[in-house]
Amino acid sequence: ELSRPDRRVGRELVCLDQVDSTNNEIKRRAVGEVPDGLTVVAGEQTGGRGRRGRSFVSPPGKGLYLSALLKPDCPLGEVPALTAWSAVAVCDAIEALCGVRPGIKWPNDVILEGRKLCGILTELELEAETAALRYVVVGIGVNISQTEADFGPEVAPVAISLAQALGRAPRRAEVARALLDSLDRLYAGFPQQREGWLARYRADCLTVGKPVRVLSGAGEREGTALGVEEDFSLRVAWKDGGEEVLSSGEVSVRGL
Ligand code: BTN
Fold first, then answer.
1. How confident is the model at residue 256 (pLDDT cuts 50, 70, 90)?
2. How far apart are CA 39 and CA 179, in angstroms?
3. Domains of the chain from N-terminus onward
4. Cα distances (Å, whole numbers) of residue 87 to 7, 46, 134, 236, 255
5. Is 45 in the pocket of ligand 1 (CB under 6 A)?
6. How close is the Cα of 227 to the center of ligand 1, in Å?
7. Which ligand 1 atom is the nearest neighbour of the CA of 109?
């Protein structure tokens, strides 16, 4: 039903009932020739992974757990933009399907009613010898019909599902189709349409103008987010003086 021979993202689509992590499954299937656009969707993840070593709650049938393999023709430095663009693509898909537009918490959490609706985990695979980019895995988890009990006491206060926010939930296949459409649009313009996507990201980004607490190797610091730079890093004015530009790999931002 979802097979898309005329598209790039999801041209080859694998649907599994259960997997450890759809990101892992992509990597297992990307031996030898790299299947550009390969997409894996699972009904349940037993080892769903989030950023910074965290896990991603992935109960059966409740969320969309999707990973796409992309092989963009761009310098390594442009790859972080793919994650940022993907967050905008998720907002597009949710808006098209549900009529509400979520926002983005920098760098790439998709937020509805102040809580996390979707997380994105991007992983890079490099050539062993040349360290050139082999491919990127963009892993996206959208909460569709989770209840408070599904999230558990730790996650529930900061997470939200479409069902909780809207009182109704679209079918997983509908969310998958809308997301594949918007990811395909993203990929068709990457990286040439960088200006347009940067503007769209900035318009969706909820973090700018807000107080932030930034956690890094150096500890926690407070400041205010001033804006998103051309390369999607975040400019912050520290409460105790000075400004700094933060890249997403280095820090975790609290607040919103
Ligand atoms: C985060 O919020 O820190 C990122 C969460 C990413 C979750 C998705 S679900 C599909 C893909 N497979 C994984 O193991 N993680 C991503």
1. low
2. 11
3. 13-204 (3.30.930.10), 211-254 (2.30.30.100)
4. 20, 24, 22, 21, 18
5. yes
6. 26
7. 2
**What is the Å distance from ligand 1's center to 240 Cα?**
35
Global pTM reads 0.95
**Per-residue pLDDT at 2:** 61
Closest residue CA from atom 16 of ligand 1 = 139
Say what the pLDDT of residue 253 is: 78
ipTM of the complex as predicted: 0.99
Mutating to test ligand 1, I would choose from 14, 15, 16, 23 the residue with most ligand atoms within 8 A of its C-beta, which is 23
Which residue has the least CA distance to atom 11 on ligand 1?
139
Q: DSSP per residue over the chain, as a string?
A: ----TT-STTSSEEEEEEES-HHHHHHHH-SSS--TT-EEEEEEESS-B-GGG-B----TTTEEEEEEEE---S-GGGHHHHHHHHHHHHHHHHHHHHS---EEETTTEEEETTEEEEEEEEEEEE-TTT--EEEEEEEEEEESS--HHHHHHHHGGGB--HHHHHSS---HHHHHHHHHHHHHHHHHTTTTTHHHHHHHHHHHBSSTTSEEEEEETTEEEEEEEEEE-TTS-EEEEETTS-EEEE-TTT-EEE--
Say if ligand 1 is within 6 A of residue 141 CB: yes
